[in-house]
Design goal:
2% helix, 14-stranded mixed sheet, disordered N terminus, 3 helices, mainly beta, 732 residues
Length: 732
């Protein structure tokens, strides 16, 4: 072991909490009627997980409203009985649709760390009306990027409403989990939102400075008998999709019927094999449009089901903002000969992922995309191999190999684009109590005739405590580093970001906490003799109130030096406009204000404004979002963003509008209709996406999806499509 690494490891603290909560899970051979009524005799004998701790508005007392959880299990199924008490019957239910958002409604969630590694967990949740949700938690639950609700699995859950409380009964097949054969102990946590009493509570105490689902804070559920070997289920998910679409700008139409599907195979107790053939993502929720005032690309989250399970194994390498070597949304998207991003059909692929044993995780993915000769797009194989080794309490080493390659000769394919390969090693630090966090990585890319240098290096270290938080983040990316399957905003940078935040917890009935943060970010360009090209010195003040509302103020001092490669930068986005002079620096300041009301109210809202300088002109921005809940059938929201860029002549100014109303109707727990309008004059588009979903069987759906798009600057029709898609989940 090298000396620097030895010193690093010696500096890692491993504090443990003083709690030691556990409960016993009883084995049973009884049968259950999953109806939400806890009338089976075994519920009277099962041991309870109770004595929930308050998490909000304080984290120092027992919860005011009791919650009790009991569990029993058979050879095939984990059964859970829950009693949730409150002070009334005015339950807050935002929707009847599965995978609801927890923060603005009454609900309870259960977390299972089945490999006891503090890194990954399965989440199952239910609200008072019996609406279910499930999620995968990765990265130790350190941030929302590790919380994935796109994951789906079959299980049962029903509730029964009573006076001032409700009961829930869940049946989760053991095949829904991954675990080691012969295991007798899982780490467990539960958290609950009680909107009637403005209380959030947890079974195992979590300090408020940590996220409520952080996996460092869990107790134990102890099985009466060791768990057996999980059977190997096979799930087939075929689909058929009838499509009619028309490009109204060229008056060309297209009609087609697509057939394909997925297969899911559990290999042993810890691995999954996913296979997809001719996948179709027409039913996936449409991306939210974002106004972009920067010179760089904006990353959008992955929503396609095939890429979700164990996605952290592939997508958590490097720095998420600047240097992510694998970004699954790159697969199925390609640039045509005009430089436009268009859909590139996926022919098929496989993914093998999961736990090899208690310490090792494996991920292998290989996807083949189709050629599109008319648009100068080659057929490519997209492959990634990832290994992860757990060390210490919750830390791990990871290594990966990425290969994007075309195996055919095309006249339009440049030599440098024949393949792109990236290898790398990451060390992810997470102390047992989650006070210390870190990431250290080194990646190298290879292209034809180019295998020297091409490095991406980074180091991140943070301390998260109740009263003082600190982090420093260092990134270095060589000019020639390439990751065609990654998300790299720009190369040839040396970037340092450092944050210091103080948090105060006053004994005040109205104010929960207030904080102050200083965050300078500085970027240099190594190829320009380390000239400083960017800085943003940010100062923030925030206040969180006991009614769940929040207020924040911010000041930013910006500097941008436009280099020779920025010779066509027009902030207003006008292709014919005069670009800003390059080879000079611009200093500009701005002030910002933001307020968010209690999201659990029938009518909630948030909004803010930014005013200040912008390059050699001025910027004025306003954003607002309003949500009306007509419980539980309708959720109506309106998002409005306005950005005014005023630059001196001859540089063009602009008024950017983004207006996005959304109506979500839930007629029952199986029929949903969502319509989203998105107007953006920056993107010259008015988009309408309307999706009707009928869940006629567990995880089996009929979708009708209508898309309509218009040019807004001339208000002319652009593109229109109608999809009728049938998907069926068949367990064999």
């Amino acid at each position: 072991m090298t000396k620097p690494l030895s010193i690093l490891l010696l500096l890692i603290p491993f504090f443990v909490s003083g709690q030691n909560k556990s409960f016993r899970v009883t084995h049973t051979g009884d049968s259950f009627n999953i109806d939400g009524v806890l009338d089976e005799p075994i519920w009277d004998k099962a041991e309870s997980a109770s004595d929930f701790q308050q998490y909000f508005p304080t984290d120092s007392i027992l919860a005011e409203q009791p919650t009790e959880i009991k569990m029993v299990y058979s050879e095939t199924t984990l059964y859970i009985g829950i009693t949730v008490r409150s002070t009334g019957n005015d339950w807050v239910i935002s929707s009847l649709q599965r995978d609801f958002r927890a923060g603005s409604s009454d609900n309870i969630s259960l977390l299972f760390d089945t490999f006891n590694d503090g890194t990954n967990a399965f989440l199952f949740g239910v609200n008072p009306y019996g609406v279910r949700r499930e999620a995968l938690i990765s990265g130790g639950g350190q941030n929302l990027r590790g919380f994935t609700t796109s994951w789906d699995v079959k299980w049962k859950g029903e509730t029964k409403l009573h006076d001032n409380y409700y009961t829930a009964e869940l049946a989760i097949p053991l095949t829904s989990f991954k675990f080691k054969e012969g295991e007798t102990n899982w780490r467990f946590q539960s958290y609950r939102f009680d909107q009637q009493n403005n209380e959030r509570s947890v079974w195992y105490k979590v300090p408020q400075n940590q996220l409520i689902f952080n996996l460092a804070f869990m107790g134990d559920m102890i099985f009466e008998k060791p768990l057996g070997r999980s059977r190997t289920p096979l799930a087939l998910i075929p689909y058929i999709n009838a499509i009619t679409e028309r490009d109204l700008s060229t008056d060309k139409g297209f009609n087609n019927v697509k057939v394909g599907g997925d297969a899911k195979v559990a290999i042993g107790n810890g691995m999954n094999l996913d296979v997809t053939i001719n996948p179709d993502f027409s039913n996936v929720e449409v991306d939210a449009i974002v106004t972009n005032l920067t010179r760089f690309e904006i990353g959008l989250p992955e929503r396609r089901q095939f890429f979700v399970d164990n996605s952290d194994l592939f997508g958590s390498f490097g720095g998420g903002r600047d240097a992510n070597p694998f970004f699954s949304r790159r697969i199925g998207i390609a640039r045509d000969s005009a430089g436009n991003n268009i859909e590139n059909r996926i022919l098929g692929g496989i993914r093998l992922s999961g736990k090899l044993n208690e310490d090792w995780r494996l991920g292998f993915l290989s996807i083949q995309t189709d050629e599109d000769v008319d648009n100068a797009i080659a057929s490519n194989n997209n492959t990634m191999l990832a290994l992860q080794k757990k060390v210490f309490a919750r830390s791990n080493f990871g290594m990966f190999f990425i290969n994007k390659q075309s195996f055919e000769d095309y006249d339009f394919l440049e030599r440098e684009d024949e393949y792109n390969r990236v290898v790398g090693v990451d060390y992810n630090l997470a102390s047992a109590d989650n006070k210390w966090l870190g990431k250290f990585y080194g990646h190298k890319s290879f292209q034809p005739d180019d295998d020297e240098g091409n490095l991406s290096l980074g180091a991140f270290m943070a301390r998260n405590s109740r009263s003082f938080n600190f982090f420093t983040d260092w990134v270095h990316i060589d000019n020639d580093f390439r990751s065609d399957l990654g998300f790299i905003r720009r190369t040839d940078i040396m970037k340092v970001a450092t944050s210091a935040e103080a948090v105060f917890w006053p004994k005040n009935e109205k104010i929960n906490n207030y904080s102050f943060e200083l965050l300078p970010i500085v970027t240099w360009r190594p190829e320009l003799d380390y000239q400083k090209t960017d800085h943003a010195i940010n100062a923030f003040a925030g206040m969180e109130f006991s009614d769940q509302s929040e207020l924040s103020l911010g000041f930013t001092n910006d500097f941008t030096f436009l280099t020779a490669e920025d010779d066509n930068f027009v902030p207003a986005g006008d292709a014919d406009g005069v670009p800003l002079p390059n080879l000079q620096g611009y200093h500009y300041n701005s002030l910002g204000f933001f307020y968010e009301s209690n999201p659990a109210q029938v009518f909630s809202y948030n909004g803010g404004t930014t005013v200040g300088r912008f390059f050699n002109g001025n910027l004025f921005s306003v954003e607002a979002e309003m949500t009306l809940r007509i419980q539980p059938k309708a959720l109506i929201s309106l998002q409005v963003n306005y950005d005014q860029i005023s630059l001196p002549a001859p540089y063009p100014s602009a008024d950017f509008w983004l207006i996005s109303p959304r109506v979500a109707l839930t007629f029952s727990k199986s029929v949903f209709w969502t319509t989203l309008f998105q107007y953006s004059n920056q993107q010259d588009n008015l988009g309408i996406n309307s999706r009707l979903q009928w869940r006629f069987a567990p995880l089996s759906d009929l979708f009708i999806v209508y898309n309509d798009n218009y040019f807004v600057n001339q208000f002319a029709p652009r593109f229109r499509s109608l999809n009728l898609k049938f998907t069926y989940w068949l367990n064999i």
